[in-house]
Amino acid sequence: MRIDVITLFPEFILEAAKVGVVGRAMERKLLDVQAHNPREDAEGVHRKVDDRPFGGGPGMVMMVEPIRRCIQRIRALADPAPVIYLSPQGPRLTQNKVEQLAKTPRFILLCGRYEGIDERLFERDIDEELSIGDYVLSGGELAAAVVIDAVGRLQEGALGDAESAAQDSFGNGLLDCPHYTRPPVDGYGDAVPDVLMSGNHREIAKWRLKQSLGRTWLRRPDLLQSRVLTPAEQKLLDEFRREYTSAP
């Protein structure tokens, strides 16, 4: 898969893509991340990419033509690709959306700066907007890094264990269960749950599902409202609730 990023700070994107799972995916040729500075497509000695907004007001607006030429240049490099503008006004990024993007051979991320981009780009050049949360950043680069990481780790072969992605929070519509590692008892005397030390994989799977259901009920009950539980899942959730409410 290939992800092209339009940004005034290409070095940030490229450095972020070298880290961890995404970096390994790049090394294994599972993922190709390229960054493009629209200043390269700007005219004039100063390669200007922004100007004052018509109608007045604070800040600067990124100009139409440098970004449009940059998009056209990237699209000419390979097959046509959708352009996604990273903006707090777009639909919020979800795991379902990440999984959809992970199956897309190629897409382009556009990082805004200043007060944003000229509105005319939305009419002809941008296919969709995407937000990573209801807050404002200085630019779209951090959001682009989030999308690249979330999508890159789902490329086949990127993770050491393919089941890791399936067990992640939101992978099945629920939050992930708790995880433990050595030592079995820590310095405060807190022990790993016995079931995880039992070697009974059926009971371990049951415990993990129960904890996943319970954690979702506690922390993100909205996720349960849109999920139809099986009778077995409902039974496990009821058990978790009883244990939770009766705990000292």
Automatic annotation (TrEMBL):
GO MF terms listed in the record are: tRNA (guanine(37)-N1)-methyltransferase activity
Please name one Pfam family that this protein belongs to.
tRNA_m1G_MT
Q: EC number(s) for this protein? A: 2.1.1.228
Record's keyword terms, sorted: Cytoplasm, Methyltransferase, S-adenosyl-L-methionine, Transferase, tRNA processing
Top-rank taxon of the source lineage equals Bacteria
Q: Which NCBIfam families match?
A: PRK00026.1 (NF000648), trmD (TIGR00088)
What protein name applies here?
A: tRNA (guanine-N(1)-)-methyltransferase
Give the species. Answer: Ahniella affigens
